[in-house]
Amino acid sequence: MRKKNINASDVAKFSGVSQSTVSRVFTPGANVSEKTRRRVLQAANELGYHPNAIARGLITQKTNMIGIAMGDVKNPFYAEILGKFSYGLRTKGYHVLFVNTDTTDIQGEEVSQFLEYNVDGVIITDALLSSSVVTRFLENDIPVVLFNRYIEDCPCSIVCCDNILGGTKIGEHFLNTGHQRLAFIAGKRNTSTSKDREKGFREALRQKDLEPLLEFGEYTYHGGYAAAVRLLQMEQRPDGIFCANDIMALGALDAAKQLGIKVPDDVSIIGFDDIGMSAWPPYSLTTWQQPVDFMIQAAIDILIQEIDDSAQEPQHRLIQGGLIARNSVQLRTT
Amino acid sequence: MRKKNINASDVAKFSGVSQSTVSRVFTPGANVSEKTRRRVLQAANELGYHPNAIARGLITQKTNMIGIAMGDVKNPFYAEILGKFSYGLRTKGYHVLFVNTDTTDIQGEEVSQFLEYNVDGVIITDALLSSSVVTRFLENDIPVVLFNRYIEDCPCSIVCCDNILGGTKIGEHFLNTGHQRLAFIAGKRNTSTSKDREKGFREALRQKDLEPLLEFGEYTYHGGYAAAVRLLQMEQRPDGIFCANDIMALGALDAAKQLGIKVPDDVSIIGFDDIGMSAWPPYSLTTWQQPVDFMIQAAIDILIQEIDDSAQEPQHRLIQGGLIARNSVQLRTT
């Protein structure tokens, strides 16, 4: 039998306070003296009472749940982000309703789930979504923050690393270190992250009238490996490869090793993300660091502002990163 | 303004059916003709109606939410498992309330969260918990499945790889391939996974009157790296190292490389888990494969059985794995 039939009135009787005092103790931010609070919590503990968040949610119209949709939890970059969102939201009193979208598109099913559970807000990372999906949330007054996804004219808030800037700086770094034949390994087609990194990279190269070779690596280790093999077996192989994320760059480094091509002596490789593995000694990958902690904090702050005040305008926040120079790039002199 | 004030009665009027028919359409498994179902869904769609899972939950005493607590989402093994649980539970109509426990202990706060949201069941992976925590869930009639954690005399269900067997088989494999000076790099102290793998390993070695050297690597890449450095710099270094998980074994492989000690020529290394990276060419790690898909399916099946029938006895399911031989072990002849 569930202990759930112990209710606030039992706790009130047991601790000798009114039922509304018990309610206040379990309502975040409500006014109640420390002494009373402690007495009520002790009684609740002894009786095995816990407030029913769900019943409370029906009254307050707040569930304190945030829906997080994520496409590729196997990518260490996103796995780490999920952990940090969970922790950051918890410190603000929110809980995570998690959806792993096996397809890269956010589908009707995931949307319905978040709507049915009446989440207070939604964070979407590493997954595509159409603006009609965003509209469905907004019509239901559920604010949405896109994390590391950018949609032009999006009616919701966006927190994103400045991918164009990152791509440009990486291109300039290759040029400043004397590279002349450059390649770009793109991630998943149609993702704004890959398209923007490519765009910035092309802009930098255009200043020297250069065009990068182009390959696709699907944002996976094996995709990056295969793309690098194709590039490195060309008659005139590139002397520098920019991979649109780190996990593909690790694949590219291993492909070069397998082919007996030395990094950085024969070819330089730069990634994007700065996942933990990139610092591992056999890789020591030069890469673009996304200021993840800062980005997550910004996303949480914006979402909570919009939850607390539905008149809040959506914000688009582009956050800069920085180049982390390790040992996968060599200064070339001609 | 929220569209939420569109309710089942509006949908009933719009589609010309009774309100109870609308309810049946949105109740999984309820009896309703395909033609009616389609008519109601179309009306719901046009009006922007979605059933309120939370209100429904208060009536049915089912929320269709499963709480998942996970300690180390950064470990690729667990990140992958989370994605698979999310997918597997969704196909059964359940949703994931996710908690990342930054400490390795499941704390009161996480427990309260799951209780407050009235989850139908709880899955705990990669996190320690005391039996008093389990008791709190069971008292509230919320079934718990421990995934890859084993507690003696635990009153809840357990799905676990047979870690003792795995450790024994790895020990025997080292002995059968002529290794004589063996070491064990343990994971986090007090985790049943590490203790059981060590126990099995010791049992195998005892048959030849051998004792392993012992180091600790905290289940992280850097911990495994540092532990391997300590072992490989000993005057009489081991010729075989069993690491209690793969991510430590990858660290150990890199440490050997850094020290100029060849794997497998000078030292053999075996891991445990078979994460994706272990198959990457520069590692090619021999390891113990946990049959993850099968374990996840078993955990979901057991949990749902217990949700549907609270008289169900807890089950302890030990699942065997198998050795995946790659290139990190060499046959030694004396």
Describe the structure.
Chains A, B: It comes from Fodinisporobacter ferrooxydans. The structure is a homodimer. Chain A is α/β, with parallel strands linked by helices and about 325 residues long. Chain A has three domains: about 5-50, 434 Repressor (Amino-terminal Domain) (Orthogonal Bundle), CATH 1.10.260.40; about 65-160 and about 290-320, Rossmann fold; about 165-290, Rossmann fold, CATH 3.40.50.2300. Helices cover about 45% and strands about 15% of the residues of chain A. Chain A has a six-stranded parallel beta sheet with strand order 2-1-3-4-5-11. In chain A, helix 1 crosses helix 3. At the A-B interface, helix 4, helix 5, strand 2, helix 6 and helix 11 of A face helix 4, helix 5, strand 2, helix 6 and helix 11 of B. Strand 2 (about 95-100) of chain A pairs antiparallel with strand 2 (about 95-100) of chain B.
Give structural attributes.
homodimer; 334 residues; alpha/beta; Rossmann fold; elongated
